[in-house]
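queue> holo job accepted (7UC)
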Amino acid sequence: MKLIPPTAGKLGAELTGIDVRNLSSDMAVQLRLQLYEHRLIVIRDQNLSKQEYIDFANKLGRPQVYFQKNYHHPEHPEIFVSSNVLENGQKVGVAGTGRYWHTDYQFFQDPLPFVMVYPQILPNTRRETYYIDMQRVYEELPDELRAYVENTQAIHDGKWRYKITPEDIDRALIDILNDVNKLVPPVMHPAVIRHPLTGRKSLYISSGFTSRLEGLSYEENIEVMAKLFNFIEREDHIHTHTWRYGDILLWENRALLHKAGDTPKGERSMSYRIGVYDDLPFYANAA
Ligand code: 7UC
Ligand code: FE
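queue> job finished
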């Protein structure tokens, strides 16, 4: 097992020379520590069955089952399927997930600590996923913006990203919206969170899920959030992962934003995600 750290100032370590089917529990502990340190690790050249992929997740922590069934792999509910490929003429999972800056499960009380993605079919002409290091963003935040997020709570709302399912046909938008709001009511987290193990602080807001900052008027909130997201999503903050077959990308969802790349029209794409709970709280108290 060989871990190649990123070049200074960059994101993304690379793990080679390991078949994760042979990962011992000692090695799993090491890998978790490397993940807290580097936040984004690409594990190259894996060739796993669905069950072996789930077994790997079990070595890192406790695999999650996504709250909506329409995302589940039909035989393995732990696998969240992002796919536009029909299997036996049937739709499996959901197409075009996460094409906006976000962290997974940010709109829940217990967000996901780790996430991994293992593509099964890659588009021919473009195969990218994007990341932003929110520990670095926090450190670089101009004082004027920092004042708005320090000792502040942010409200996150998942309902605007809800995808219509076959059961929604013939229902009024207002009824769907009311039901989704009951299913995932808005939640609050500190706008700045401290990592429970490393103690490093991250800015914990995203243009995908964060609806407002506490204590601001309607107008001020719109203005401040626009400034914050402009800063966060600056070109020089974005790390691009270009996928190769065999990659498993594993990341610290406490510290990074991510965004799925578009699949070019007419091309196929299918990937398997597993969310994993480690044995730590999502954040330590800030300050
Ligand atoms: O379809 C999607 O973009 C999924 C999104 C609403 N949730 C991903 C997550 O884990 O928060
Ligand atoms: Fe996501």
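queue> The chain has a mean pLDDT of 97.
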